[in-house]
Write a structure and sequence with these properties.
Elements lengths: L1 H30 L1 E6 L7 E6 L2 E8 L6 E3 L15 E6 L2 E15 L2 E11 L9 E4 L7 E5 L4 E5 L10 E6 L1 E3 L2 E8 L2 E7 L7 E2 L1 H6 L3 E2 L1 H4 L5 H4 L3 E11 L2 E11 L3 H4 L7 E4 L1 H4 L3 E5 L4 E6 L10
Parallel strand pairs: 3-8, 4-7, 14-19
Antiparallel strand pairs: 1-2, 1-10, 2-3, 2-6, 5-6, 6-7, 9-10, 9-20, 11-21, 12-13, 13-14, 13-17, 15-19, 16-17, 17-18, 20-21
Length: about 300
């Protein structure tokens, strides 16, 4: 009889455990949120948001550290934030400051915030005229940029596996909440800033010089754009780029003279910005708990030259 009771007790324990595990799995599934991405010419990840009752779009930017909101979404003059008066924002054009205020209401999908600390774009100028949201705004372990399916997944737990795809990863380091990964160009080691807010990738002149790159005169003559007009730029030909066990061969990149990297504290070190021209070839998973970034793509995605 004692053995029978023990078996029954064990069975009930197993059943209770399975029920609890099922409930936890259901809760985890409910916590996953999906943000649909809008199709835009620049391929940057814009999603629908509601700012103070106004439906609009905002850029999901790994290269931002504070929300940047136009003053046009405030019904009255923005109320200064109680803890700070200005925010320092870094970009290709250099460092700029914006007033900091409390935003009454912001909603992104099913998530909403009140009295949110934001930088106020009073002139609708750099970096873009639309609003910018840093990924640090979303308090989930994983921010999963599924570019091929026009969505961003927000969830806890480990990054999702993708069938029939190659997944590589690398540990990243943070600088002012920005994501920096180790890379190698023409056998020269450097760092790359992962920036979903940048249309194009570029290196600093120090990287081009250290890598022994040759200037591409034809493409250099074609460089145009509001950001590039403020900075001296040349296009260089590179042989090989390696990051997180991914490889690109025979490609061209602009080398841009900008104070961005110095302002991040890296001075004259070889540095790169990875923009959406490169990142959109991947499903990009940022695991913020482990400080690890995953690059998922089909096995032949990066064999062609990047022109």
């Amino acid at each position: 009889m004692a053995n029978l009771l023990s078996l029954r007790t064990a069975a009930w324990v197993i059943i209770a455990y399975l029920a609890m595990a099922f409930a936890m799995g259901a809760n985890a599934a409910e916590e996953e949120r999906t943000l649909e991405l809008q199709k835009v010419e620049q391929f940057r990840p814009y999603t629908s948001v509601v700012i103070n009752g106004i439906e609009t779009s905002a850029l999901l930017d790994t290269g931002a550290t504070i929300p940047l909101i136009s003053d046009g979404y405030f019904a009255t003059d923005p109320e200064p934030h109680e803890d700070e008066s200005v925010a320092r924002i870094l970009g290709v054009g250099g460092q700029r400051t914006y007033p900091v205020a409390s935003l009454p209401h912001l909603a992104v999908g099913a998530k909403s915030w009140t009295d949110l600390r934001v930088a106020v774009n009073t002139e609708n100028r750099y970096p873009v005229q639309l609003s910018i949201l840093p990924i640090s705004l979303f308090e989930t372990r994983v921010v999963d940029f599924d570019f091929s399916n026009d969505r961003v997944l927000l969830y806890d737990g480990r990054p999702k596996r993708v069938r029939h795809a190659r997944r590589t990863w690398v540990d990243y380091q943070e600088a002012n909440d920005l994501i920096l990964v180790p890379i190698k160009i023409n056998s020269v080691r450097g760092l790359a800033l992962i920036d979903t807010g940048a249309d194009m990738s570029f290196v600093n002149p120090e990287f081009a010089e250290a890598a022994g790159a040759k200037i591409d005169e034809e493409r250099t003559a074609l460089i145009r754009g509001s950001d590039l007009n403020r900075n001296k730029a040349s296009v260089f030909k590179f042989r090989r780029l390696i990051f997180a066990d991914n490889e690109m061969r025979r490609f061209s990149l602009p080398a841009l003279e900008t104070d961005l990297f110095s302002e991040l504290g890296y001075g004259d070190q070889p540095m790169m910005v990875m923009g959406m021209d490169l990142l959109r070839n991947f499903r990009l998973q940022v695991d913020r708990e482990r400080r690890r970034i995953y690059f998922i793509h089909d096995r032949t995605a990066l064999r062609a030259s990047n022109s």
